Amino acid sequence: MAELSFAVISDLHAFVDAKNSSNSSLQFGTAALESRNPLVNLIEYVRRERVTADILVCAGDICNQADLQGFSSAWSRLQELNAALGSRQLVSTCGNHDLNSRYLKDRSEDDDPDPKGALLCQTPGFPFDDPAINNQYWAQNFVFVDLASDCCTLVLNTSAYHGGREEEIEHGRVSQRTIDAILCELAKWKDKQTFVLVCHHHLMPMTSLAGKTDYQYVHKGAELLEKLERATRKSWLVIHGHRHHPRLVYGQASTSCAPIIFGSSSLGARLTGIPNQFHLIELKKSNQSDHSSIVGTVKTWSWTETTEWSQAGRSNLGMPTICGFGFKGQVGCLADELSKLVGTAYITWSEALGTLPSLNYLTPEHLEQLEDELELRGIAVNYDRTGLPSQIAPRAT
What we know:
This protein has helices at about 30-35, 40-50, 70-85, 115-120, 130-140, 175-185, 220-230, 330-340, 350-355, 365-375; strands spanning about 5-10, 55-60, 90, 140-150, 150-155, 170-175, 195-200, 220, 235-240, 245-250, 260-265, 275-285, 290-305, 310, 320-325, 345-350, 380-385, 390-395. By secondary structure, it is of the alpha/beta class. It has two domains: about 5-325, Metallo-dependent phosphatases (Purple Acid Phosphatase, chain A, domain 2, 4-Layer Sandwich), CATH 3.60.21.10; about 330-395, Arc Repressor Mutant, subunit A. α2 packs parallel to α3 (about 70-85) and α8 crosses α10 (about 365-375).
């Protein structure tokens, strides 16, 4: 599989017009406003800390409530971020806020509605600078892009039907025609080893929304995922945005190739208790039998108006400083191995990783499970001030 890194942002919700400012921190218009802007701050941070990525992914909702000036300003800044990261490709997709699907901007133009018109006039082109790729994305509602020698990336427009029937704006959708066309095109990429899907809406209902029923998922999204899995016999990495609730979970699968679903935090939305975050996904090579066909780590940074960008730390509502995905074995077995390594002394987390590399590929949920298993064995995981595990030691008695 490819060793490839993806810088991931989503849900910028940029605006210039104050009428579109509800619940967003990402305002453009004056130098003073932009100095407190998480996207502008991120470009500065990436340059200063020399953060790099092969690909920059933006999973939609670049602007807030179809604010055209906000979109154009943020789209220009995304080109700067792409360059600062040293990325060879900016991969973006359309979010529901990017489309003027409710005809919000000028009621006098209701007799000539064009929900995606402003997006088609962007310079550089949106979502891609290549006209041929752009044309397929808008015409077919998807496009495959070649990012690496053995990586296949599918970019899907889950907002394609917004601006049609009124109820469409409440959710994402992929049509049966689109699914059939994707599978037909996918046959040309069957020799690839790594498969990535980028979209805005989540493909299946989310269950981590405080008990609320989720209706905003992509209709027919689960069917698409199942057919992609069956066609490739590989686990797909799905990167999405929309709900602002970050998550890293395994989807359902009819085979052993469960998709890895990464829901990005929002870069600009103001949400109680949920931080604005930026992520770096690094895919790794692994041939271990207890690993998925795609494994990797996720590093995360958080932003506040007072501290700006810093390592994420540990948060119940945001992604932690570092976690991973791809381990398919028993967490209890890892705890047994760690217990043997610790004995009556302690070991550093780096030493543990050297002996048990599977620790790199634990999701946040699996990390919590590992801590619980170790606690049953009288062992604690200690963290440093940045939220990184530092050592594993017997609990004091």
